[in-house]
Amino acid sequence: MKKILNVLLGILMAVTVVLMGYAIATGGSDAAIGANLIWGYFLFVFAIAAALFCALFGMIENPAGIKGTILSVLLILVVVGVSYFYASGHTVNILDLQNNGFFSRGETVITETSILVTYVAFVAAFVTALVTEVWGAFK
Prior knowledge:
The protein is mostly helical and 139 residues long.
């Protein structure tokens, strides 16, 4: 199974390199950019599908981990929900230079929600790394 995954990873990386080379060689033509965007969308959907499949397979294989998975999903939903309600509680004016105006309220709320969720994820990763290192130092 590991060999198959390594071959699949190699194929995905080769296609990515070829598409990047195509975009560079054509000077960023619309066709090359379009092909790279479609490939990026495919990789994004493939990554989400793989993550969901692995999570479901792990829950089926180890039912004891279902509690942790449910708690993790609930924590993520709480963080996104609180970020959304915080972002929608006030108005942020972001300049839209292309149209000489401001972005609509919906776009700014989604943008600020994404930024807040990213901040929480960065802080959580930093605290986790710090606690892990300190914990390991005392063992």
